[in-house]
Design goal:
Elements lengths: L16 H14 L10 H14 L7 E7 L5 E9 L10 E6 L18 E3 L2 E3 L7 H16 L8 E6 L7 H8 L2 H4 L3 E4 L4 E4 L6 E10 L1 E10 L3 E2 L8 H14 L8 H14 L1 H12 L4 H8 L11 E9 L5 E2 L2 E10 L5 H12 L3 E6 L12 H14 L4 E7 L5 H6 L4 E3 L4 E3 L11 E3 H19 L5
Parallel strand pairs: 3-6, 3-7, 7-17, 8-18, 9-16
Antiparallel strand pairs: 1-2, 2-6, 4-5, 5-19, 8-9, 10-14, 10-15, 11-13, 12-14
Amino acid sequence: MPIPATAQTSSADYTEPHQRRALEMYRDVIGMRTAEGHGMIPTMAEYLAERFREAGFPEEDIHVLPHTSESGEEIAAFVVRWRGDGSSGREPILFTAHMDVVDALPEDWERDPFTLIEEDGTFFGRGTADDKAGIIHLTSTFIRMKEEGFVPTRDLVIGFTGDEETGMVSTRALVDEHLPLTQAEFALNADVGGGTLDETTGEPIVFEIQTSEKTYSTFEFTAANPGGHSSRPRDDNAIYDLADALKRVQAHRFPTRINETTRAYFEGTADLVGGETGAAMRAFAANPDDAAAGETLRRDGSMIGLTRTTCVATMLRAGHAENALPQSATATVNCRVFPGDEVSDVHDTLRELAGSDIEVRLLGDPTVSPVSDLRDDVVSAIRAGVETLHPGTMILPSQSSGGTDGMHFRAAGIPTYGVEGIFMKSSDVYAHGLNERIPVRAFFEGLDFWHVVIRELAGRPSA
């Protein structure tokens, strides 16, 4: 019987062998500072490989794949294949998550970020939610089910990446260099999606399946000027010219957009949100050209990314001496491009806004990924997992404004669905921030969620 959502539990309440083993692995990997610059990604990959060896997975199906990050650091991806009996006649399923974390400075935290600490029904530590819970949920569930004698009807493949938080070199490698290892009918990404609990009651509100994400693209605005002595200022000034261009970007509104994922999300959650925002969600779902609804949602930081392409200035550098007029001024403008909008069109818009005296340059090579249409088998399996934990919870597709590994798998033709088996209050989400946390109950629930989902997708149908 599911534990009530409002109940507070401790790790001592979970005594099954697979639960204790998962907790031990969780503690071990939280202790690894797998942030950029600390060289711990290969260590974590080897640690996971050893756990699969101990569980009896053949050496030829375990792969620690070395790579070099954009910063020149040695990192790794990790792949393990659980061979099925082939009775389904279907392609493999790929399960993915990322081993790396955003760095945390111990002096800024109330607790050591690289020690798993439990207090009052909560686990604290860097990566507890993003994304070492996903890593351990999948690793533990594969090992548990193999011990139980489960034989999948198709191959199941784990593909863990090593630099999702930075350059995604290892992610791209999994679909470029190592596609024979990771080719799949579809993928489940244990880094996004999941359940939301009511802030007051702690009861489940909705479970989201991420089906799409915006295209991450960054532009550099540069103003140039002959410069001169600061005692002789003049009207043309690289800093002022750049500032004028950025103010035009600030004032610009990209056209509103909607797709089946965002429409379903707005329709499904409008009543839950309520108030002015909920009314705007309903109106926008019915008519995305409703200017008033669009403006209401634009003012809400949690909603603006679901309604349009956005661009915002994030970094500045200018000048070379305090007593000299600036010879150049440069700003970084980060854009999240709505699926279906073209990065080239956004580039053209920014050029127009900047004006002819400002150079606007696209940095890098953005990865554009399509929306993954919901599949009945995936939704059914996820529903079974959710029902095991919190019966009756509404399940909806969702779109991420941020970027995940899923973009690269989708771009390679592998439909990808973001599904974390975790239910949390929004106020407990501290990914990338200080004192990252996850409820103890949510961590252990995730083990049961994945056990059900994998059995539903790769088990023999009941007689």
